[in-house]
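Recall that a protein's primary structure is simply its ordered list of amino acids. Everything else, from secondary elements to tertiary packing, is in principle encoded there. The following example makes that idea concrete.
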Amino acid sequence: MQNEKKIPSWFIYFFGSFGGILFGYDIGVMTGALPFLKIDWASAMSNATLVGWVTSGVTFGAIFGGALAGQLADRLGRRRMILYSAIIFCVFSLLSGVAPTNGVMYLIIIRCFLGLAVGAASALVPPYMAELAPARLRGRMNGLNQTMIVSGMLISYIMDYVFKGLPTAWGWRIMLAFAAVPAIILFFGVLKLPESPRYLVNHGLNDDARRVLSYVRDNDNEIDSELNDIKKTAAAENNAAEAQKSVSYASLFTGKYRYLVIAGVGVAAFQQFQGANAIFYYIPLIVESALKINASDALIWSVLQGVILVVGALLYMIIAEKFKRRSLIMTGGSIMAISFLIPAIVNKVTGTEHPMLLLVFLCIYVFFYAFTWAPLTWVIVGEIFPLAVRGKAAGLASSFNWIGSFVVGLLFPIMTAALPQEAVFAIFGIICIFGVIFVKTRVPETKGISLEEIEAQNIKE
């Protein structure tokens, strides 16, 4: 054991969070592929509902992938489940690229299965990183995961732009199949990663857990202290797990923890129903409609959105611990609402369309979303649920988040076929206002406050 070569901490953190690249890549890749797919399969893709299903099939699968992976990870380990996710992602990415001509149902089904891996990555990476990172770095590790996700989106947008000059029938296929490349990189990277110390302790492998901690901790005192904390937490969680067996999903909203469960699940749902993924999935088509140009010529706008997302994620890592959670997320939500509402108001008042005004304010929306609602939703969800109901409540929040993403991705093309784009975004703007009101009235502050203090606030309510 003494002669075993240590795994560098940077390697662990980089590949531990690399699953976010897969998550982000497949969120973004259809953005550029869809315009070419609509041209190649013009007759089959003329229906707005089918366009919505092809785009949002991944998020539909992710609803189930996240829940399934979370349960299996406790038995098989997070590392092994991330490996399985990478394999599934690779296989179904390649199958997406060989879809038969006009095979809309085939592509929808394949993307639903692909969503299993996307949902698994979203459920597995954050806890794996949290269980490996020192307490002083856990806030930034959440920021690192978010940065990986938006970097994956940016990479997908860049690849879409690079491949746009290929023949139409080949371009979208290569865009979708290229997702196998980061999946292969993840697989071979994770092969060298250790299992999380929390999982090892839960399975009685204390020596192995100590060895893993030695990779990412500075000295023996820190290792011993952390190992003791993990043992205590594991014992508490095992006791809580026994208690949770008597907790039904219905009882989450009727018991003494109702206030906190509604707050966490509500934030997760509002993050998606505010319309961010409508922009990320459909920006070329939005630009096509606004500027009256071909969607294939609008892919540079996707790259711009990706750059804004990455800048916003990096900004969050800088300011994460400098502002209160509620203040930051309410400020972001307010600016997001204004960004959606102003173009609709200006168009209504002047009686004239201002397409560039809409696109500029969409960029402002994306920037504020990137360093407020995007990362803070999962910070709040990770901090707000009491131990006794954490498993079921966190799973429910994740499911509502994916359901929101699926619904927005499915309905946006249907809504824009019936209403002007400005009106659709105005609807999302109103939802943003309700999100701010919800946070103001229903979500307690969690920054720098212990779980016991949060629960005490609940009792007072």
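The CA atoms of residues 413 and 419 lie 10 Å apart. The chain has two domains: 1-193, 250-461.
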